């Protein structure tokens, strides 16, 4: 079996060679064929020299260099597109993930799972990172219905189909298991050893928190409504419009009975609600057109097996 290791790296020069040695030692024990795909995400340190050197010494090492820093999700996509293995691993480049766990990931895949996600346990990061992380994990668990403990672990193993079918952009790399689960793949987790960062520093600071909130909204919306956006916007539009019509209807009755209504704040509210309602509706219909044109071109289903 061929194993592909996709490793996004942004300014991780001191770790790259060690990681290569650790992985090589581990997979040679397992007897599988292997390749490592380092994706240099626009590093400004010596990462590229180190990787060029590794590649020239060992053809198992493949390297993709981005022109600038495009982010971890983009790096993973680039790596997935080149990965030839039946099983694709993703690992962080900073030596926090331990290659000793590789056989345990493979065992889980053999049990029939399509994606195995790591659960950093015990997690060796500063509390400033673990506390917000807990909150995020709780919210994602609730919003996605996928029962994992650690959504922000870069260490994963998946069947090639999963890597092929999942589309990541922006900062959606945290949602690989969620997107896989959504497409019908069997997702599970195993506890993995976690090491403190030895070299360099974390690329994700506090900003991750605010961004994380928006990504969360995006993913929950994508999962629930990509195929039926009007069901989301339509309800809001309908409720708003009905309220507006009721209010303005009431005012019309008063007007017919001879009252003046031009000065009533209620009139503004009614008109506003009708306008907002129409807007929500149009937005929903536009979204339907978008979904239709995209989903009719791409496969919106995933096939597990085909006979004949
Ligand atoms: N990374 C990347 N591009 C970025 C930021 C990070 O490729 O723009 C890589 C980074 O080099 C590391 C992995 O993503 O291999 C995880 O990053 P980091 O260790 O900083 O995250 P943390 O472990 O602190 O959550
Ligand atoms: Mg790290």
Write out key terms for the chains shown:
seven-stranded mixed beta sheet, alpha/beta, 308 residues, 10 helices, Spore Coat Polysaccharide Biosynthesis Protein SpsA, Chain A, elongated, binds uridine-5'-diphosphate, binds magnesium ion
User: How many domains comprise the coordinates?
Assistant: 2
Shape: elongated
Helical content band: 40-55%
- What quaternary form is this? single chain
Indicate the mean pLDDT.
Answer: 93
Q: Architecture of the largest domain, according to CATH?
A: Alpha-Beta Complex
- Specify the number of helices: 10
What is the H level of CATH, i.e. the homologous superfamily of the largest domain? Spore Coat Polysaccharide Biosynthesis Protein SpsA, Chain A
Bound molecules: uridine-5'-diphosphate, magnesium ion
Total strands: 7
Per CATH, the class of the largest domain reads Alpha Beta
Uncertain regions: pLDDT < 50 for 5+ in a row? none
Strand order of the largest sheet: 3-2-1-4-6-5-7
Strand content: 5-15%
Task: Please compute the radius of gyration using only Cα atoms.
Answer: 25 Å
Q: What string gives the helices and strands in order?
A: EHEHEHEHEHEHHEHHH
- The fold-level CATH name of the largest domain is Spore Coat Polysaccharide Biosynthesis Protein SpsA, Chain A
Task: Return the structural class.
Answer: alpha/beta
N/C terminus separation: 26 Å
The major beta sheet can be summarized as:
7 strands, mixed
């Amino acid at each position: 079996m061929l194993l592909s290791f996709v490793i996004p790296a942004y300014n991780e020069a001191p770790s790259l060679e060690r990681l290569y040695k650790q992985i090589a030692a581990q997979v040679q024990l397992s007897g599988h064929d292997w390749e490592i795909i380092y994706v240099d995400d626009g590093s400004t340190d010596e990462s590229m020299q180190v990787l060029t050197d590794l590649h020239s010494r060992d053809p198992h090492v493949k390297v993709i260099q981005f022109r600038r820093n495009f982010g971890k999700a983009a790096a993973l996509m680039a790596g997935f597109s080149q990965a030839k293995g039946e099983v694709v691993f993703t690992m962080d480049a900073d030596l926090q993930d331990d290659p000793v766990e590789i056989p345990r990931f493979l065992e889980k895949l053999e049990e029939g799972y399509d994606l195995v996600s790591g659960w950093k346990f015990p997690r060796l990061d500063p509390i400033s990172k673990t506390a917000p992380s807990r909150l995020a994990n709780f919210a994602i668990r609730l919003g996605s219905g996928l029962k994992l403990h650690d959504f922000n672990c870069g260490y994963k193993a998946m069947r090639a189909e999963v890597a092929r079918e999942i589309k990541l952009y922006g900062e959606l790399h945290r949602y690989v298991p969620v997107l896989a689960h959504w497409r019908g793949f069997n997702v599970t987790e195993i506890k993995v050893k976690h090491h403190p960062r030895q070299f360099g520093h974390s690329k994700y600071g506090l900003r991750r928190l605010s961004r994380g909130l928006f990504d969360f909204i995006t993913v929950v919306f994508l999962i629930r409504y990509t195929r039926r956006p009007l069901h989301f916007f339509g309800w809001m539009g309908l409720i708003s419009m009905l309220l507006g019509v009721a209010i303005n209807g009431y005012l019309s009755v008063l007007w017919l009975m001879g009252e003046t209504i031009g000065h009533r704040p209620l009139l503004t509210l009614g008109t506003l609600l009708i306008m907002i309602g129409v807007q929500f509706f149009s937005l929903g219909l536009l979204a339907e057109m978008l979904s239709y044109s995209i989903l009719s071109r791409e496969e919106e289903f995933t096939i597990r097996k085909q006979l004949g």
